[in-house]
Task: inverse folding
């Protein structure tokens, strides 16, 4: 008599976990808004949360073609708003920062001429993150209010976030070394944008 191995029984159901973030910029904004209001630190290891709403190849023509439709929900007429562009590149040397900013700002201006550049308190911040040959794009709100989406800084009180001044032997309004370093970092991180008014159609 031959013994045959009984076939393995297959479970009638399989469990799986699927998580889809349809609008990551809204999720991150909600988290930062809560932290800004409560001033409660909810993480010790995460420094910044940068949502990515769209990706394309990191070549100027591909970026321009993709940005036309990507920017529509925020900037296409009749919608309008003030904006700035934040650009950072990693492991990429073939793109020009100034050229990318100029072209993207021109696209925003073409969608609605009433869209204006504002580096102080923009309604929207266009985030361009270049990683090798991939371009990650997102449009976020309250970028300045939420301290460049820095989770460690957004929970600080207003007094803690302001640079201190020294009034001893340094003259009126002289800043401490910590405040000087903070101002230096802010100057290095300052975003350069090209006004859409100067774009040639």
Result:
């Amino acid at each position: 008599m031959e013994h045959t191995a009984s076939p393995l029984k297959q479970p009638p159901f399989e469990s799986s976990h699927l998580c889809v973030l349809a609008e990551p910029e809204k999720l991150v904004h909600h988290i930062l808004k809560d932290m800004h209001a409560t001033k409660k630190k909810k993480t010790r290891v995460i420094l910044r949360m940068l949502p990515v709403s769209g990706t394309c190849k990191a070549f100027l023509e591909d970026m321009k073609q993709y940005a036309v439709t990507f920017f529509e929900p925020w900037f296409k007429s009749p919608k309008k708003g003030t904006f700035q562009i934040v650009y950072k590149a990693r492991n990429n040397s073939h793109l020009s920062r100034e050229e990318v900013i100029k072209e993207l700002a021109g696209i925003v201006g073409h969608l609605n001429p009433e869209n204006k550049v504002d580096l102080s308190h923009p309604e929207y911040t266009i985030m361009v993150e270049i990683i090798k040959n991939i371009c990650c794009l997102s449009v976020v709100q309250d970028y300045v209010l939420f301290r460049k989406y820095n989770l460690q800084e957004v929970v600080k009180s207003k007094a803690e976030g302001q640079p201190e001044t020294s009034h001893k032997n340094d003259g009126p309004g002289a800043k401490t070394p910590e405040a000087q370093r903070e101002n230096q970092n802010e100057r290095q991180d300052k975003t350069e944008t090209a006004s859409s008014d100067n774009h040639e159609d």
Observations:
- Residues 51-147 form a domain with the THUMP fold fold (CATH 3.30.2300.10).
- The chain is about 30% helix and 15% strand.
- The radius of gyration is 23 Å.
- Residues 24-38 form the longest helix (15 residues).
